[in-house]
Request: fold
Amino acid sequence: MSAPEISAPGHRPASLKVASGLLGLATMVTRLTTLVIMALLARGAGAEAVGFYGLATLSASFAAAALSVGFPTYLTRNVSAGLVPHPEVARIHTTRLLVMLLAAAICWPVAGFTVPGAVQLGFFLFFLSSLLEQWNETAWVLVRGTRKAWREALANAIASVTLVAACGADALLAGGLSFTRAAVYMALASLLRSVLAFWLSGVWRQLLVPGRVDLVGRSRQAVPYFAADLLGLMYFRGDTLVLALFVAASQVGEYVSATGIVGPAVQVASSMGVGALAYAAPRVLGGGRPDEPVTIFRFFQIAGFGATGVMLAGLPIATLILFGDEGATIMHLAMILALFLALRFANFGLSAVLLAGGKASSRLIVLVVSMLGNVALNLALDGRYGAFGAAWSTVLTELIVASSLLYFLHDRTLLRPVAASTAFVAVVAVVLVTLVELLPLAGASVGTGILFLAGAAAVVVVRRRFARPAQTANTGA
Reply:
């Protein structure tokens, strides 16, 4: 008996804004909430508490990536293309919960040996909450790229508002938020978000459908995505490790703080990349239109320029609120990393196009080359320039990423827009360095932000101007 043919779902709208924009919004809500909680925790329990929080979530990220076997990215591509039935997704999702809970059980005794007893409970709860967030990824693939994509943003908003309200009230009533109480609130909020994901995505309904899942076979298919996801995580964290070999802990702390400011926007770009994958995969498998890759890249270019401009414009106020008068160096580092943000947005778009074409193994090579390049740049620059060398290494690595992605895409239509986008960022980088020498950091940051916003507006105008003749020609034909 032949296997039944699985067709792409017909209810998925042909809208990159729906598939990617809502997913980015959902992540933005969560990341902004995390920033607020970190600020409350820093003011109530001190910088050391924030450090333990970061260590707990970082450990959970590596654990979740290792235990997920690439399923989040694999399912995003194949469910949106109609190649994996929804009942199978539901069973994979529930199996992942058992694996995550096992990891949390192992974390408790390990934390007892590695962190002070006073923070062990809080460390464990932060670890658990981060695992739950990673677990939700395989539930939301059922709605990403569909007309129900708004449910993810709604669930994140409900959980985030509840978390901020609880932590804010606690800080006011107790005169400051403690490490353990913050961990309790975050764990409860993550549990609420997971319940909402389980319900709103329809996992519970799919579990009622009779069927089974070949976990071994699906795991083998997801392995290329697993390696890419794990290497990508190592790539994003490796710069801090190399920097620690050359400079004092205080400089490492300043660099980590700067990456913490840029990090939420990078996570939004990553989520938008997943949305773009859900948008592009069915089109590539169905023949696609020749302009799809350029459409996706332009979308991310505009979003990246706009997000970078907004961040730079608000950076002086943000660093003053979060770090007070001691945040000058952090702001300077964040201004450099903003250049990385603009490039990273565009590269997430290229990566989504690559994955949609079924080239996960090529993306794995891209990550290996980029990670090696990042380590080499850090080794060359960190010893002489310290945290600033690490920041510029991060920016330059994105050029390696873009070049590698273009090589494996083999799409000449992308060469001109990618080259123009990179050239614009290079020009802004020169302007940034010049403004830092001539103006106060706040003025240089705002001025550079205005340039990025102007760049985003220019791309929008050019796109509309060239789109009108094409639409007219199509109508006439």
About this structure: Confidence is low (pLDDT under 50) at residues 1-16, 469-477. The chain is about 85% helix and 0% strand. The radius of gyration is 22 Å.
